[in-house]
Amino acid sequence: MTDPGSTALFTDHYELTMLASALRDGTAERECVFEAFTRRLPDGRRYGVVGGMERVLEAVENFRFGEAELRSLSREQVGDEETLAWLRDYRFRGDIDGYPEGELFFPGSPLLTVRGTFAEAVVLETVILSILNHDSAIAGAASRMVSAANGRRIIEMGSRRTHEESAVAAARAAYLAGFTGTSNLQAGLRYGIPTTGTSAHSFTLLHDTERSAFEAQTEALGTGTTLLVDTYDITTGIETAIDVAGTGLGAVRIDSGDVGVLARQAREQLDSLGATGTRIVVSGDLDEYAIAALRAEPVDGYGVGTSLVTGSGAPTAGMVYKLVEVEGRPVAKRSSHKESRGGGKGALRRHKSTGTALEELVYPTSPGHAPPQPGPHDRFVPIPLMRGGQRVEDLPGLEDNRQRLRHALVSVPWEGLKLSAGEPAIPTVFPDVS
Amino acid sequence: MTDPGSTALFTDHYELTMLASALRDGTAERECVFEAFTRRLPDGRRYGVVGGMERVLEAVENFRFGEAELRSLSREQVGDEETLAWLRDYRFRGDIDGYPEGELFFPGSPLLTVRGTFAEAVVLETVILSILNHDSAIAGAASRMVSAANGRRIIEMGSRRTHEESAVAAARAAYLAGFTGTSNLQAGLRYGIPTTGTSAHSFTLLHDTERSAFEAQTEALGTGTTLLVDTYDITTGIETAIDVAGTGLGAVRIDSGDVGVLARQAREQLDSLGATGTRIVVSGDLDEYAIAALRAEPVDGYGVGTSLVTGSGAPTAGMVYKLVEVEGRPVAKRSSHKESRGGGKGALRRHKSTGTALEELVYPTSPGHAPPQPGPHDRFVPIPLMRGGQRVEDLPGLEDNRQRLRHALVSVPWEGLKLSAGEPAIPTVFPDVS
């Protein structure tokens, strides 16, 4: 966030009532370990993609209670005087380890480990989960779309289908996952993501004729632009487009109808007009399956909206943030449902000598446990993100993490990249802890 | 938004390239009418609920390009000098009419009508749709949950499952739709929505025993609080809860398992302990169907998370923003798919003398058309929201609009309130325009 605004009230009420109770009986200062993980991947997905970790760190840094926040809490009687005084001085001073953005994750992967006092770590729960659940949901869906696009350009254009701020985060997550760019201008300003766009049907309708619209657009944006040819009749639209812009026209866009059939017809028409270099961009209710189905068609680029920003059927990643250790002692809920494994955890991803991932070994890090010995092709997945409340220096950036995902996907067993529903690409293994 | 930040870059790139092209050929100043509507309701829903209209007006007012925004556009070469100069002076000066929040809508209902020059109206498209699509999706789902809860308390607690800013808007939309309150503290600060919460499993796990956790909580929050009794064994948890807090304990919460069965057992146990006034609150993956299924169980309140903030299967409302009139002349896309009806429109909701809604009459308002004559029980749905870029005075507020929805639902034919999939509760009728 470039907005320096406080993130402190992106928080559930009960985090602060727990804080008030724990301050009162002294348990607030107990050293704790909280862990974010997901119990399952959505809808038969084969892998998850970590999104939002960088935004999590910013949110932790900006988790400060200013006067407006404190006044609101006081007015709503959310905390007593002692609690409000504690919040006034709040800043996170603990340690955070986590999976970097662009990393794959699986059920039970210890995505984020927060170490600190109960008080300082519990209050971060809501905003950490909001970010991880949203951004990872989008990154996971986006990665499948990028795989389906198979190297063709793919643009994120779903801003209008989701909350205005989610849209910016979604554009970022899509870019992380390999999208070429976004329509969202704020994502360009905030994160330096390439933005792109040319015109909508309204621009054609505004003009007296399609021809005059195309003339205005090529006049302003050059003949390398993309003309939207499906406002009236597509065949006429393409003919007019080439007539106006010449055979050097950058691209035509088709936004409706059976885009596979229409793309083939458009390619034939463009070629027959001599516009063999004019690309064909399709959009309109595409998801990963529709993109995959167009693989054999002469499509040069995809614009993806609704399905991207809604996580293509899985709008949230199902992550939870659980207390797993108190003063070095593993703790876990023990009732009949939603059980968790107690104790802090690390993760070692094991690979064959070919580089193909074999399993996610999730091992205990609580006192008395030694980490496993990595083989020559194995690697520990979490990295240090914060120490003593300070962000670790030289953390990988968005472009690094974009590369990371590309490499990680190469390591997945081939069945793991299938779009169809199935088991996770690699199993998560929890060694028996004696 | 209390944040005075600019909304100007919550905008698709192509809005500004269209602007640049239209400024160049002079069409930018043509008087236009844009209309927001949805072609269909999601998933067999019977009605939609307008959410976000108030946020739309704020976004329009805050749609200003500051130096940071202009620098970003210049750097990315989104617009030429003329375009940037025009944006520097931008403010919306046109008129807006729309369905107030809490109003029902149906396929084709003219939810929002923006009148102004092409230039000033087209640039608002993205942010208007982001807000309406998100907030109406949540309000629509929330309304069904409130109906299913049938008068019992229902609390929104899904912040952690969605983007941190969406969470605030979702809490607002849920409250609009009749939720009792929210866990989201920012929604309390920003919109004055009642916030609520007590404790999570982590609070019990932090303590050496469940008893000491309950003691700490009742000490800090009083015996009117809600104790979470399912961290270990529910029967023991309830026994301990009453032992600690006495029979005046406010409530117990059950967050996992077969909550219907557990609620019945809990009620029996509480009654046998003499805690006949202690309420039972259930949470954990509830949606409108689960809530309805609990109607016969001794449940006093519901906490709803994931399904609320994700629109219970319909995370976006499918609204579009279409140019329908240019200089008084109706315009519409004419290719084979996604057709629209040209021309500005009004809506008259017709009712029987009993007050039951009959149909949504969507009639043309473009030059040469007279509005229909309302019968004694009919009413025009859209209201003026902005005139000359200024918000109309004394617009209804959140509490008014909460009442509005309650009244509107009473007017729906009874089949229209069923949770099962089906046709819209009333048909939308477009008179033949000769």
From TrEMBL, chains A, B:
Biological process annotations from GO: NAD+ biosynthetic process via the salvage pathway
CC terms in the record's Gene Ontology section: cytosol
Role noted for this protein: Catalyzes the first step in the biosynthesis of NAD from nicotinic acid, the ATP-dependent synthesis of beta-nicotinate D-ribonucleotide from nicotinate and 5-phospho-D-ribose 1-phosphate.
EC number assigned by the record: 6.3.4.21
PANTHER family, alphabetized: NICOTINATE PHOSPHORIBOSYLTRANSFERASE, NICOTINATE PHOSPHORIBOSYLTRANSFERASE PNCB1
Family: Belongs to the NAPRTase family.
The name this protein goes by in its record: Nicotinate phosphoribosyltransferase
Gene3D superfamilies referenced in this protein's UniProt entry, alphabetically: Aldolase class I, nicotinate phosphoribosyltransferase
One GO MF term: nicotinamide phosphoribosyltransferase activity
Domain Nicotinate/nicotinamide phosphoribosyltransferase: from-to ranges: 154-338
UniProt enzyme class: ligase
Domain of life: Bacteria
Catalytic reactions on record: 5-phospho-alpha-D-ribose 1-diphosphate + nicotinate + ATP + H2O = nicotinate beta-D-ribonucleotide + ADP + phosphate + diphosphate
CDD domains listed in its UniProt record: NAPRTase_A
Mod. after translation: Transiently phosphorylated on a His residue during the reaction cycle. Phosphorylation strongly increases the affinity for substrates and increases the rate of nicotinate D-ribonucleotide production. Dephosphorylation regenerates the low-affinity form of the enzyme, leading to product release.
Segments of this protein annotated with the region Disordered: 331-351
Residue span, Nicotinate phosphoribosyltransferase N-terminal domain: 9-133
Keyword terms, alphabetized: Glycosyltransferase, Ligase, Phosphoprotein, Pyridine nucleotide biosynthesis, Transferase
This protein's pathway: Cofactor biosynthesis; NAD(+) biosynthesis; nicotinate D-ribonucleotide from nicotinate: step 1/1
